Amino acid sequence: MVVYEVRVSLLGIEPEVWRRVRVPGDLRLSEVHFLLQIIMGWTNSHQHEYVGADRKRYGSAEGHELLPGVLNESQYRLSSLISEPGDGCLYIYDFGDDWSHEIVLEAVVELEEPDEPLWCLGGQGACPPEDCGGVLGYFDLLEQLRDSDAEGHQEAVELYGEDFDPEAFDCTFFNRLITERFSGIGEMMNPEEVEEQMRLLAELQDFLDSDGLPESTMTLLMIDGFFAALAIHPVTMMPNQWLPYVWDVTGAGQQPGFISNAQVEKGLGLMLSYMNFVVDHLSESSDEYLPLFEFMQIESEEERMKLSMDWAVGFMVGATIDKHVWERTFGDEEGADLLMPFIVMSGFLDEKKGVDPVKKAEIRKELIDEMGDYVLDMQEYWAPMRRDFLAGRSLARAAKAQPRVGRNDPCPCGSGKKFKQCCGK
Fold first, then answer.
1. What is the pLDDT of residues 297-350, one digit of tens each?
2. Domain 2-126+172-185, CATH homologous superfamily name and number
3. How many Å apart are CA 297 and CA 386, to the nearest integer?
4. Where, if anywhere, are coiled coils annotated (predicted)?
5. What does the pLDDT look like over 376-424, one tens digit per residue?
6. Cα 160 to Cα 182: distance, rounded to the nearest angstrom
7. What is the 3-state secondary structure (H, E, C) of 264-322?
């Protein structure tokens, strides 16, 4: 396979923001676009286009008409724009903020069946926040964050946090995301599916930010964890059963003050669409399942911890939504063991006396990377109860569970690997 080593630089930014990436030269420009969104840290909320050295322009025909003279990017490959070391092109994102990226081909390498044809080799600098006003707006934002006396400082802190670090970058997060998301070039997720998912998430976040929703409304991360639990739950829950928890995660029953029927319909439609997405993911491609926080641009370990805890709170609300299922699961030794990672991560035991806060933090750090696997373990444990429910049998009937090999247990074939890495693939 011929792979390109390219440097992607965000023009006009100080401190510098750049990435060095290994990518197959025959990747379509539409696929390169999604890779660039991930590796740079953007959220795919705006239009984009490529400009070649010959000034030809390439854009996406998804959702809108191509402008005259703009070629359809899905019909061209990266090698159409760059093919020799030193060749370059531009990738422009968000025609309002006008973020211009220079892509320069540094090396062409022939590799025999590379394990990681997509890989971040290096980089520097955090991605600027979306919709901050382009290069000049970003400079103003950094000044507002640095100067506590500056006009707009408090608003900037509320939006982006005091610990926003413009120089922060770590290849590890991006490579983990790429490895999990793209298990092989031939198996790359359909770009249209990726775009639809990102659009749905953006619309759902906008809805959650709208006026009229109680402060107790679930965050986007809580909703993702909540829907993950409902997707694998033994009992099928109707919207009228789970929606009250979305509006009020505490269970106290606060209701949103919607301003119109249109807002009600939009909110319900977004919730159902996203729930269907999570259900499909866990039923059709469960081996690739990851919680939402694994796909987000995260600037620090502290932020990742907070987001993962939010997600776990949502999962626990879903896990406890049916009293009988909860009591039966938590009352079983295996079920309680499988629930424990979610309980610890969500903070449900934070009030328990005698638990060292430092020890809890250490345990949570160890749990974060495995949360997706814990969901699959829980799905496997609940599967017999789910079959009973779908068959119309009472879940109250105690059924002796069959011996089960956990995904993290040694594989019974004797390979020495974990079951999930061997026969459990």
1. 666 778 888 899 999 999 999 999 999 999 999 999 999 999 999 999 998 766
2. MM3350-like (3.10.290.30)
3. 35
4. none
5. 999 999 998 888 776 765 544 433 333 444 555 565 444 555 555 555 5
6. 29
7. HHHHHHHHHHHHHHHHHHHHHCHHHCCCHHHHCCCCCHHHHHHHHHHHHHHHHHHHCCC
